[in-house]
Amino acid sequence: MASSAFNGANRRKKALIFLVSCVVVALIPYCLDPKYRVLISLILSVFLGSYALIIILRYKDTKINEFNINKISPEDFLSYPSVDVVVSARDEENVIGQLVEKLQTIEYPKDKLKTVIVDDGSKDKTPILLKDLAEQYPDLIVINRSRNSGGGKSGALNHALKFLNSEWIFILDADAKFEASILLEVLPVVLNKGWLAVQLRKAVINSKKNLLTRCQGMEMAMDAVIQEGRLISGGVVELRGNGQLLKRSALDECGGFNEETVTDDLDLSFRFLLSNTPVGILWNPPIQEEAVESFNALWNQRKRWTEGGLQRFFDYWQHLISNKLTLTKRLDLGTFFLLQYALPIISLLDLILSILFRAQPNFWPLSLTAFSISGLAIFRGCNTRSQGPDIPRPRLFSLIISTVYLAHWFVVIPWITFRMSFFPKNLVWLKTSHSGN
């Protein structure tokens, strides 16, 4: 069920064109009179920064959902749609038991709920644990897939879809944690708003582990603020994998999950966008997950996120600039593509050129604008009243550190773009390891 219409052809060529374009932009100021060199950066700062600032300011602090399951009548249960809760698990022996026990607590009409775990060729104790858990919980459906089946997480999810037929699909990662009432809280909102897909805010459960996990907790709050601001402004909302609720018919119309990408969620976001499928985001209730606890794990995770993020732009760019999208959505995509992917490359090149030419960097106003807006989004997100784990407080030191922490993207994105431009790609989906602590 991979999307055959967008097969990711010529990604290497497109990556090279993008990289060369960034090199040209970084070089242009050095061809100008010194007093005009910062002008390009100032102009971009005004236009891109103004739009991003509007997004952050339009975000609204949401109240904690006062949901009460006792208020639901038997008649209400009859109107609820059927839901398949689906998890793709590979080598998840540390967390699979906790997850299955959590799945059993979901408060939802039992005749309308299926819980499904795809064992995607695990080599650790995951298959043994799942076998024992399936005997313990007869309602648990375990689907086995060989490790060399291909397609990564997308392939595993597509395989599961062959056995399922519910109206909605709730996709979780193996380390997911959530409140038992999560579906009863989310579905009424989704149905009322007419969304066919929704992403729940991702909340970090181990933010107190160390400074790195603390920064990730604040980063996830920032991301949710930006996402909600983009939604309110008529922009684009992106799925984040863990904690995404999808209407099955909308997913089928898009061809299922794309097995030619390393980030199924980001790719599906664009295919939903191009098919005019309404996608929303909810701050409460959140989906809880682990942050990676080491720099090596962070590096590997962010490499995959960057590659998948660029792949979708390279695959769908012709459709993204066409009249299929509104002007507002094209403006939104263009702004965040330049800030998220082009700016890190241009800034790094600008720094290198400034050293070579013994001159002052030219794009510092734009970089300063991007970090300032990110810091504002972190501050707003960390001050929002929230369900789930406590979000780290944005005290001055934490705010500065978490904003500086975002500079790792200015290394990851240039490196992955360079690698995609010059080295052949063997599509490999690298999972994030979960400790279960």
Description of the structure:
This protein is an alpha/beta fold and 437 residues long. The chain has a single domain, classed as Spore Coat Polysaccharide Biosynthesis Protein SpsA, Chain A (Alpha-Beta Complex). The chain has 15 helices and seven strands. Strand 1, helix 4 (96-103) and strand 2 form a beta-alpha-beta unit. Helix 1 packs across helix 12.
List keywords for this structure.
437 residues; alpha/beta; Spore Coat Polysaccharide Biosynthesis Protein SpsA, Chain A; globular; disordered N terminus
Shape: globular
* Strand residues, percent: 5-15%
- What is the end-to-end distance? 35 Å
Rg for CA atoms: 22 Å
Largest sheet: 7 strands, mixed
Short account of what is shown:
With 437 residues, the chain is of the alpha/beta class.
Please render the helix and strand layout as text:
Blueprint: H1 11-27, H2 39-58, H3 74-79, E1 83-89, H4 96-103, E2 113-120, H5 126-136, E3 140-145, H6 152-161, E4 168-172, H7 182-193, E5 197-204, H8 211-232, E6 244-247, H9 248-253, H10 264-274, E7 279-289, H11 295-320, H12 327-356, H13 364-382, H14 396-405, H15 409-422
